[in-house]
Amino acid sequence: MSTVTGQLTTLDGWPVAGGTLTAVDAGGVQRARGTSGPDGRIVLDGVPAGPYTLIVAAPGHDPLARTVSVGAEPVTALGVLELNRAGLAVLPAPGTWVIDPVHSSIQATALHIGMSRIHGRLRRFSGQVQIADPLENSSVEVLIDPTGVDTADEMRDEHLRSADFLDALRYPEIRYKSDGLRRVDHTHWIVDGLLTIKGVSAPVPLQVEFHGTGPDLMGGLRAAFSATAEVSRDDFAIDWNQSVLAGLLAVGRTLRIDIDIQAVRS
Question: Could you tell me which residue ranges the Lipid/polyisoprenoid-binding YceI-like domain spans (predicted)?
């Protein structure tokens, strides 16, 4: 007899509680079954030696099957069993998907005096994703209100809204419009597009990860994406800076953009 151990997690490492692991022998007979705890760990006690098919099932996740040979050792360690969230492989259906700003975020990160990072959010935006068939013909357009910049410091935010940076009074809109979509694999894509700030447009590719589709609490259908990009301030004539010691700049010239999007099918 052996004890079979393992841990159920999501693809990004979060533990999956309440999942079941069932051991079925070569004759199709269930020999053991266990449930994962809050940390995702699962234990099957008293499993006889021999070949088994292990079946993993957890609410909200796709099932997983694995073969294993249990020997005479007291413990058979399976290691980590990663589960796909249900719907991950289901691409969004063709049509218009409207971005839900309440459950989405756009964050920018800049290097400050060459040592640490300052984070800010653009809190007011809208947009939609137009899913096409084939998917490579899809498009996205987002409008951002630059007055919604928020770095948790009002004096700094006012400076960012001024002509030194976003010049929000003269240019009340930041726009991103895609002009191409390239597939990397079944969950990763590159969106090519133009970002327009202060009336100046420059290409900014987005590295996009698709997180799946699923129902929401009101009977709608949602799709989730995350994306990252790097934006050079020089491309948009946002060149204000101050030198602090031997050419060290107060604000880095490159911004990292992190985006999380939920879109609702219209």
Answer: 96-264
